[in-house]
Specification:
The chain has 254 residues and is an alpha+beta fold. It contains 5 helices and 15 strands. The strands form 4 sheets. A 7-stranded mixed β-sheet has the order 1-2-5-9-8-7-6, with helices on both faces. A 3-stranded antiparallel β-sheet has the order 11-10-15, with no helix packed on it. α1 links the parallel β1 and β2. α2 crosses α4 and α2 crosses α5 (193-202). It is globular, with a radius of gyration of 18 Å.
């Protein structure tokens, strides 16, 4: 399906779509039809059924934001290393966004892009496996750029325009994001997995601070310690505990 030696830089080709159901769905369809390979990027001005984490819908204001999906050849990774792609993607988003928004940019576990206590973007990674081979990943990235009015159901959203007071070209910024992804992917290919984990933990939202988390119906206030290479969040709740993706819900202050 995807050539194992694919070396096309991320963002080549860069396809622009006026409207699509979901850039991730579109990208996956193209890969499965052998019409897209490593590096292909799909940018949309509007999504009708944008996909977010945990089955949530990603809502956007048409023409205002980065709505991007990127295809990665992951055949040289182990299936057990799937969170490394999440870390790599989060770091690339941080690299890109912090150039404009500054040092108050962080990554909220597992891979939301935050500025102060407000969500600027999200990442949805869909991994495709065949037996013991991790064939490819599709990185879905949504980042708020020019939008200033948000659906009331969204918790604490923020856009780059709200932070900086400037209006940007989302398509041009998406190409810059592709370059950040390419830089971080090359770093990961060249043995940078541990270094990227350490970098991720340095910019981890609320690291070393007490936060409110909910597990099922139980609310508790541990201190955030770190994230492990397998993606589990480590907290200090009197004793050290760790949690897998989907086990916890953040309770973010308004």
């Amino acid at each position: 399906m995807l050539p194992i030696n694919a070396k096309t830089p991320i963002g080549h080709p860069f396809l622009v779509l006026a409207q699509v159901d979901s850039t991730n769905i579109y990208a996956i369809d193209k890969v499965q039809a052998n019409l897209a390979a490593h590096g292909a990027a799909f940018f949309a001005h509007h999504q009708i059924k944008g996909k977010g984490q945990m089955g949530k819908q990603w809502k956007d204001d048409s023409g205002s934001n980065i709505l991007l999906s990127v295809v990665l050849n992951t055949q040289f990774f182990l299936i057990s290393q799937q969170f490394a792609i999440s870390i790599m993607t989060a770091l690339a988003c941080y690299d890109f966004f912090s150039k404009y928004a500054g040092e108050e940019t962080t990554i909220k576990w597992p891979n939301d892009l935050y500025w102060r206590d407000r969500k600027a973007g999200g990442i949805l990674i869909e991994n495709h496996l065949k037996g013991s081979i991790w064939q490819y990943s599709v990185l879905g990235i949504g980042i708020n750029i020019n939008q200033t009015s948000f659906d009331p159901s969204l918790q604490n959203p923020v856009s780059l325009k709200q932070i900086t007071g400037k209006t940007f070209d989302p398509e041009e910024l998406a190409k810059q994001l592709c370059q950040s992804l390419e830089n971080r992917f090359q770093e990961l290919e060249n043995g940078g997995m541990q270094a990227q984990l350490e970098a991720y933990n340095r910019i981890l939202y609320k690291r070393g601070e007490r936060v409110s988390l909910k597990k099922e119906t139980i609310l508790f206030q541990p201190i955030i310690k770190e994230v492990r290479a397998n993606g589990r969040l480590v907290v200090d709740n009197g004793i050290e505990e760790d949690y897998d993706l989907g086990q916890l819900v953040w309770v973010i202050p308004n």
